[in-house]
Amino acid sequence: MEFLNIILNTIKSINIFSILDIVSVSFIFYQVYMLLRKTRAEQLLKGILLVVLLIPISSLLQLQTLNWILNKTITIGVLSLVIIFQPEIRKALEHIGRSAFTEKHIFQDDETISVIISEITKAVENLSASKTGALIVIEQKTGLSDIIETGTKIDGNTSAALLENIFVENTPLHDGAVVIRSNRIAACGCFLPLSSDRNISKQLGTRHRAAVGISEVSDALTIIVSEETGVISLAVNGKLTRYYSNEKLKAILIKIIQYRRDKKITIGEKVKSWVKIKIKA
User: What stretches pass through the bilayer (predicted)?
Assistant: First the structure.
């Protein structure tokens, strides 16, 4: 009865600000769920919600022992959540942290975009034809200095010839990823974080998993050339699309970069959309 009285009193005290509060909290929970969807944390989240629902039910049915156990579980679980959800919390904060006040535009004009992307796609086309494995990361608004530090710094002009030369098999720098910052090749032989997404095909190797991994924790555009098949793939926002031609790859890269350069995105819009760009393969 006490529980029912609390509910009735709450309903009576609802006003416009209460509705706004409920909508805001619901929106936040929805976005958190979308962030955790299709991750290992999703099943854990469902278990936590079940425990939370069982607490008032056990209290209503006067199941005192069960209610005590569930309450203690929640108390201890608060600290556990921070540890368990550490990768997801970090990912969410990185998304929110890309505010309009800290973003920098990598490419300022269409001509620069066209020239740089043309050089990259030309190299990718030649690497694909020779079935030479490659991993090229184009830095966007999320800084990749920590990734650059893991490789060998080059700071050279972005050219097809240099990119092709870097990925020549059995050369000292061909392993790892090339990171392109602005219009220059910042470093090569860089190590990328591997994705833990179980939906990635088992037929794809470490190179593809690394490409998805860096796109999950940043807004970088990552191009992959398969060493076995020569297939060209692209990883953006944790999504991998494959079988690109040179023309199609160039068009989608230019489209994404121009979109991100021209669109003024506020922090609120970032929280709402998580800066997801849909790519049609």
Answer: 6-32, 44-62
Helix (H) or strand (E) holding 185: strand 184-190
Domains of the chain and CATH, by start: 2-96 (no CATH), 110-262 (3.40.1700.10)
Which two three-digit tokens encode residue 247? Answer: 């023309």
What are the start-end ranges of the H helices in the chain? 2-12, 16-36, 41-60, 64-84, 86-96, 110-129, 145-148, 160-166, 206-217, 246-262, 267-273
φ/ψ of residue 52, rounded to 5: -60, -40
Average pLDDT of the segment spanning 116-127: 96
Helices (H), 130-218: 145-148, 160-166, 206-217
User: Residue 65 CB: number of other CB atoms within 10 A?
Assistant: 8
Rounded Cα–Cα distance for residues 205 and 266 (Å): 37
* In the predicted structure, residue 279 carries a pLDDT above the cut 60: no
Torsion of CA 211, 214, 220, 223, to 10 degrees: -10
pTM: 0.64
* pLDDT at 105 exceeding the cut of 70: no
User: How far apart are the C-alpha atoms of 132 and 174, rounded to whole Å?
Assistant: 10
